[in-house]
Amino acid sequence: GDSVTQMEGPVTLSEEAFLTINCTYTATGYPSLFWYVQYPGEGLQLLLKATKADDKGSNKGFEATYRKETTSFHLEKGSVQVSDSAVYFCALAIQGAQKLVFGQGTRLTINP
Amino acid sequence: KAGVTQTPRYLIKTRGQQVTLSCSPISGHRSVSWYQQTPGQGLQFLFEYFSETQRNKGNFPGRFSGRQFSNSRSEMNVSTLELGDSALYLCASSTGLGGNTIYFGEGSWLTVV
Fold it and tell me: Could you tell me which residues of chain B have a Cβ less than 8 Å from any Cβ in chain A?
């Protein structure tokens, strides 16, 4: 079945460090890929998305590129801030379906 | 434009009781889906409704049910609550068309004691 595997957390970095959170997927069709972020006590917010191979999603300094050959969608940010501390979820949706399959989430903590 | 609204935000129920959670989607969105989030199982898909019809269903027991009204608002119900049903229940809405973005509400925190 369809699945998403994320880099295990928690991840702790210093402010202004470079961030990478790995995400790989298994899907039978041609999925759309997403990164969602969850701040403490809140729901999920869409961070970025990509709907086809080689697409790059970007938002708030975060980027991720849809790599079909490696079935990956790694999240990157060049310089993290304390306010980026949250849990990050990678997810896929099979084209045409309104059902998201999530990775297990990666808790990120940024220290000043 | 108002986001996805869920009520209530927090509730405590006793084992064996039932609970109903409500969700109002973003205006114009016809698809509403529900997810359960727990520390052990992560985020799991419960079901999705589109134009009052259940279109997708996850692997949850029959105690979990839902419905959608003609105005796209949705409710989910859990009967005969168990301790393991304690979770954050998230509602999400979208236009229902392929490739579109799915937006989430703040969630309803359910504690079963």
Answer: 4, 6, 31, 33, 35, 42-43, 45, 48, 50, 55-56, 58, 90, 92, 94, 96, 98-99, 101-107
* Distance, C-alpha A100 to centroid of its chain: 13
Q: What is the 3-state secondary structure (H, E, C) of B22-38?
A: EEECCCCCCEEEEEEEE
Instruction: State how far the Cα of B89 lies from the Cα of A49, in Å rounded to an integer.
Output: 23
Residue of A98, A99, A101, A107 for testing the chain B interface, max B β-carbons within 10 Å: A98
User: pLDDT for B24-54, tens place per residue?
Assistant: 999 999 999 999 999 989 999 999 999 999 9
For residue A103, the distance in angstroms to the closest alpha carbon of chain B comes to: 8
Round to whole Å and give the CA distance between A37 and A17.
Answer: 19
CA-CA-CA-CA torsion for B86, B102, A101, B58, nearest 10 degrees? Answer: 60
Could you tell me which of B27, B62, B57, B108 has the C-alpha nearest to residue A41?
A: B108
pLDDT, tens digit (0-9, with 9 covering 90-100), for A57-97: 999 999 999 999 999 999 999 999 999 999 999 999 976 67
Q: With contact defined as beta carbons under 8 Å apart, do A79 and A16 qualify?
A: yes
Q: Which of B42, B58, B107 sits opposite A105 (nearest CB)?
A: B42
Q: How many Å lie between the alpha carbon of A97 and the closest alpha carbon of chain B? A: 6
β-strands A11-14, A106-111 pairing? parallel
